[in-house]
């Protein structure tokens, strides 16, 4: 096999993929049940790979969500991917000075095989002599019940409707979908949500009725024993043997990120010349090669992370109610606080009150930094990262525990290996008086 097929982060699962009892078995046991499934965790921690491993592509209908995606966009995509045509008829008010749209009626054209007496449109002949016909049905694209009825008419077999990147949706859209998921669950329609966050019960916070109606599958944590199994599975496929001390260094540097482990193993193999399977074992025990690999990965991650941190720091200004009070520039101070923390300080998140104290210690006008200012900035953080096109997001605010958490698993590796002052030197201070 080639190195890129064994180790590294790729669109498709690599050959060193391992199953974990607490993760894979939880998903497998959930598939035959009726509840909706939530797969969550930091970015690049194996959510999509887990899904691809256990659910064939033919059983998945996937919608990739974005910051501007609405519930109607999601439902329209799900219907379109199942060959349901949607026609929109708009009525207008012509009595006003300018004609304006006041309502819209949706009609779905459902395909089916046969030659019944139902009035049909869009008939076409198939090769086996059957006729492909469609029948119009009026429905409301904004009502989950109507959408669910259409999906049930065309769903054959065990189909899962997958919503990727759920975390990019606005708070209102996530809340609406949390209510719609209950309707779909009662109708027997299965949904799988993939989101970048680290706390349990994210959707239950929006809709308490989802309690016992969803099954959550966290993909974290990853342990050293898991990383050892990844190497144990991938190593023989390339016929390599890496010194235990080098492996331990990789597993320690990763701080629980399977993406960092995969990338460091791949980079180390590249430098050792193990680009594919060879008949003779390749022994890798040169610590200098690992040091070079780590430095190169730091530089690669730095290019993206510093750009992302700069975008957050330059985010919308937070102002007090009075005009005399200067802008607080809280996103900049948030970045400064996070960059100067180490892994142990970041792994469980920073509580909102502690964050306020840390920002006040750095701020030019600490008395102006109130709890409400910090909360407002944290609540706006998802939209700030989305508008800055930070993909995947670096931080997430858990409103339940009131903690800000790192949700890009590679950021721990970067922060623990960078020089904080050098990073902040590349990020302009938005306050011209600072």
Q: Please, could you describe this protein's structure?
A:
With 434 residues, the chain is α/β, with parallel strands linked by helices. It is 42% helix and 18% strand. It is built from 17 helices and 14 strands. The chain has helices at 3-6, 21-30, 47-54, 71-80, 144-154, 171-186, 224-238, 244-254, 258-271, 287-313, 330-339, 343-346, 352-362, 371-379, 381-387, 409-417, 420-425, and strands spanning 36-40, 60-64, 85-93, 100-113, 121-125, 131-139, 160-164, 190-195, 214-218, 240-242, 282-284, 350-351, 395-398, 403-406. The strands form 4 sheets. The chain has a 5-stranded parallel beta sheet, sandwiched between helices. Helix 8 (244-254) packs antiparallel against helix 9 and helix 11 packs across helix 13. Residues 95-104, 113-132 and 318-326 have low confidence and may be disordered.
The coarse silhouette is: globular
* Proportion of residues in helical segments: 40-55%
Q: Tell me what portion of residues adopts beta-strand conformation.
A: 15-25%
Sheet with the most strands: spatial strand order: 2-7-8-1-9
Brief digest:
The chain is of the alpha/beta class. It contains 17 helices and 14 strands.
Give me the secondary-structure topology.
Layout: H1 3-6, H2 21-30, E1 36-40, H3 47-54, E2 60-64, H4 71-80, E3 85-93, E4 100-113, E5 121-125, E6 131-139, H5 144-154, E7 160-164, H6 171-186, E8 190-195, E9 214-218, H7 224-238, E10 240-242, H8 244-254, H9 258-271, E11 282-284, H10 287-313, H11 330-339, H12 343-346, E12 350-351, H13 352-362, H14 371-379, H15 381-387, E13 395-398, E14 403-406, H16 409-417, H17 420-425
Parallel strand pairs: 1-8, 1-9, 2-7, 7-8, 10-11
Antiparallel strand pairs: 3-4, 4-6, 5-6, 12-14, 13-14
Helix pairs in contact: 8-9, 9-10, 10-11, 10-16, 11-13
């Amino acid at each position: 096999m080639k190195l890129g097929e064994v180790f590294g982060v790729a669109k498709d699962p690599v050959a060193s993929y391992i199953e974990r009892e607490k993760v894979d078995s939880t998903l497998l046991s959930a598939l035959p049940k009726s509840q909706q499934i939530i797969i969550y965790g930091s970015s690049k921690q194996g959510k999509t790979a887990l899904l691809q491993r256990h659910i064939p592509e033919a059983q998945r209908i996937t919608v990739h969500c974005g910051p501007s995606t609405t519930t109607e966009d999601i439902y329209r995509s799900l219907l379109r991917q199942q060959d349901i045509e949607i026609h929109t008829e708009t009525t207008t008010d012509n009595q006003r000075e300018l004609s304006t749209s006041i309502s819209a009626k949706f009609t779905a054209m459902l395909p089916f095989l046969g030659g019944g007496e139902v009035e049909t449109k869009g008939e076409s002949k198939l090769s086996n002599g059957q006729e492909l016909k469609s029948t119009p049905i009026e429905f409301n694209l904004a009502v989950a019940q109507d959408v669910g009825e259409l999906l049930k008419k065309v769903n054959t077999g065990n189909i899962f409707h997958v919503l990727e990147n759920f975390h990019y949706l606005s708070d209102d859209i996530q809340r609406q979908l949390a209510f719609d998921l209950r309707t779909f669950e009662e109708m027997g329609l299965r949904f799988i949500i993939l989101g970048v966050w680290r706390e349990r019960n994210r959707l239950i916070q929006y809709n308490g009725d989802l309690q016992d109606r969803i099954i959550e599958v966290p993909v974290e944590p990853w342990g050293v024993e898991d990383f050892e199994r990844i190497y144990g599975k991938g190593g023989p496929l390339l016929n390599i043997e890496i010194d235990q001390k080098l492996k331990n260094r990789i597993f320690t540097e990763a701080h629980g990120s399977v993406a960092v482990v995969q990338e460091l193993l791949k980079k180390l193999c590249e430098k050792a010349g193990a680009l594919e399977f060879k008949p003779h074992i390749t022994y890798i025990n040169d610590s200098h090669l690992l040091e070079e690999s780590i430095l190169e990965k730091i530089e690669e991650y730095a290019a993206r992370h510093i750009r992302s941190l700069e975008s957050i720091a330059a985010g919308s200004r937070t102002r007090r109610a009075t005009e005399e009070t200067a802008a607080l520039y809280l996103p900049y101070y948030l970045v400064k606080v996070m960059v100067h923390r180490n892994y142990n300080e970041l792994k469980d998140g920073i509580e909102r009150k502690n964050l306020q104290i840390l920002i006040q210690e750095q701020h030019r006008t600490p008395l102006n930094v109130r709890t409400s200012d910090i909360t407002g900035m944290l609540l706006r953080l998802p939209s700030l990262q989305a508008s800055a096109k930070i993909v995947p997001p670096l931080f997430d605010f858990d409103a339940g525990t009131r903690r800000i958490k790192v949700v890009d698993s590679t950021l721990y590796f970067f922060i623990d290996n960078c020089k904080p002052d050098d990073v902040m030197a590349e990020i302009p201070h938005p306050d011209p008086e600072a």
